[in-house]
């Protein structure tokens, strides 16, 4: 999303970003599926749920489960070290 400051809100730029990970046929399928009513409906439903039920207010939003029945929300790409701490995962803290 933020790599190379590409605005992925346009199909052309989204295609450029997707080609870094997917082959051309997969990119075409992804772009096609983004305009289908099934996908639009799923996105609307999931977005509504995370905003209304989980309190999400931005992107990226992570709801992290530790496998022991505990879950916490984390907002922002600069919060990964907090997620690793929550999960008791080893990591090198920010310096």
Automatic annotation (TrEMBL):
Supply one GO BP term. glutathione metabolic process
Q: Which InterPro entries match?
A: GST_Kappa/NadH (IPR051924), Thioredoxin-like_sf (IPR036249)
Q: Name one GO cellular component term.
A: peroxisome
- Protein name, UniProt field: DSBA-like thioredoxin domain-containing protein
Residue stretches spanning the membrane:
none
User: What PANTHER family does the annotation carry?
Assistant: GLUTATHIONE S-TRANSFERASE KAPPA (PTHR42943), GLUTATHIONE S-TRANSFERASE KAPPA-RELATED (PTHR42943:SF13)
Q: Which GO terms describe its molecular function?
A: glutathione peroxidase activity; glutathione transferase activity
Which taxonomic lineage does the organism of this UniProt entry have? Eukaryota, Fungi, Dikarya, Ascomycota, Pezizomycotina
